[in-house]
Specification:
alpha/beta, oxidoreductase, binds nicotinamide-adenine-dinucleotide, NAD, Rossmann fold, single chain, 11 helices, 15% strand, 7 strands
Length: 279
C-alpha cells in the first residue's frame, strides 16, 4: 500500500546528518521528511562521501544540496551552517544521526580501551551534537526542533556496545542541557532511542544479530525498522510536538519496559535442555 503523506513539514527547512546508504536511519528520515514537504541539506564526513551514494538520495529528495562536513571540525560545521543560511535564510530542524567507535570496529574490550579511540568516539558520537548546535544557533529559527538518534545502551549494559554506551549517555545529557537553555526560543531538543537496526554502524557491533533477535522477541511490537524510525522523527520535527523537549523517547516496540516474556523464556528453556547431558 502506498504511504500516505500529510504535509507535516511543508515550509520547513533543515540539515540532516548521517545518511550513508539506504540502510542508514538518516537516509530513511530524509526520504520521509522530503515526502512531508521538508527541504534540507544532506551532509556527511568528507571521507564517507567516497562510499556514500548521497547523489542518489539527493535526486530522490528533489536535488537536495549535499555538503561535506566532519562533525568533529568547527570550520566544517561553520561552513555548513553558513551555506544553510544562504540557501534557506533560517532553519527549522536538525537531525543528528551520527556515530562511530574505532574500539567497537577493532573489537577492543571495554576494560582495555584505546584512549585515543575512546576520545574520538565521544567526539564524533556525542560532543558533535554540542558543536553542531553551537554553530547552528545563529541560523536556527525560533521554534526549531533538534533530534539526535541514541540507543538504550546509554544507561543499561549491553556488553558489546562498549564505549558507545558512554558516548550515548553524554549525547543524551547534551540534548537535555541544550534543550533547557533553548526553551526561551521555543527550540526543542530530544533524543530518539531506536531499536537495533541493520545498518553499517549497527552491523559493526559484535553479536549484533543475536542482540537484534533478542530485542525483537522481547519487544511486544517487535523491533522498529528504519522507515518506522523515520516516521517517528517526522512527528518530532513537526509542529504537532511543539511542547516536547528534553526527552529521551523510546522507539523500540516496547523493549525498554520489558523484563522477560514467554517467547524468550521458551528459547532459554530450549537452550537449557540442549545443554543437559544426554542419558
Ligand atoms: N543501527 C542501530 O541499531 C541503531 C540503534 C539505535 C541508535 N542508532 C544510532 O543511529 C545513528 C545513525 O546510525 P545508523 O545505524 O543509521 O548507521 P550508519 O552507519 O548508516 O550512520 C552513521 C553515520 O555517521 C557518519 N559519521 C561517522 N563519523 C562522522 C564524522 N566524523 N562526521 C560526520 N559524520 C560521521 C557515518 O558516515 C554514517 O553516515 C547513530 O547515532 C547510531 O548510534 C543506531
Amino acid at each position: 500500500m502506498a504511504r500516505k503523506y500529510y504535509g507535516l513539514l511543508e515550509g520547513k527547512k533543515g540539515v540532516i546528518f548521517g545518511a550513508l546508504n539506504e540502510q542508514s536511519l538518516a537516509w530513511q528520515i530524509a526520504l520521509q521528511v522530503y515526502g512531508e514537504g521538508g527541504q534540507f541539506i544532506l551532509t556527511n564526513a568528507p571521507i564517507a562521501m567516497r562510499f556514500a551514494s548521497l547523489d542518489v538520495l539527493s535526486y530522490q529528495c528533489g536535488n537536495a544540496s549535499v555538503v561535506a562536513a566532519d562533525v568533529t571540525k568547527d570550520e566544517d560545521l561553520q561552513q555548513l551552517f553558513t551555506e544553510a543560511q544562504s540557501r534557506f535564510g533560517g532553519i527549522d530542524f536538525i537531525v543528528h544521526s551520527v556515530g562511530r567507535s574505532e574500539n567497537i570496529r577493532k573489537k577492543t574490550p571495554y576494560e582495555n580501551l584505546r584512549y585515543e579511540w575512546y576520545l574520538k568516539t565521544l567526539d564524533i558520537s556525542a560532543i558533535s551534537l554540542h558543536r553542531m548546535i553551537l554553530h547552528a544557533l545563529p541560523v536556527l529559527n525560533d521554534g526549531a526542533s533538534i533530534v539526535a538518534l541514541t540507543y538504550i545502551g546509554s544507561h543499561r549494559i549491553f556488553s558489546e556496545y562498549n564505549d558507545m554506551s558512554d558516548a550515548k549517555a553524554l549525547l543524551e545529557a547534551i540534548a537535555r542541557n541544550f534543550g533547557a537553555r533553548l526553551g526561551e526560543r521555543k527550540i526543542r531538543v530530544n533524543t530518539v532511542s531506536q531499536s537495533p537496526t541493520h545498518t553499517t554502524a549497527g552491523n559493526g557491533i559484535a553479536g549484533f544479530d543475536a542482540l537484534y533477535e533478542f530485542a525483537d522477541k522481547l519487544s511486544p511490537l517487535g523491533n522498529a525498522n528504519a522507515e518506522e524510525c523515520a516516521d517517528y522523527v517526522v512527528t518530532l520535527l513537526s509542529d504537532l510536538t511543539s511542547k516536547v523537549t528534553l526527552q529521551n523517547l523510546y522507539h523500540d516496540g516496547g523493549f525498554s519496559q520489558m523484563g522477560m516474556n514467554e517467547r524468550v523464556m521458551r528459547l532459554m528453556e530450549l537452550s537449557a535442555s540442549a545443554a543437559q547431558p544426554q542419558p
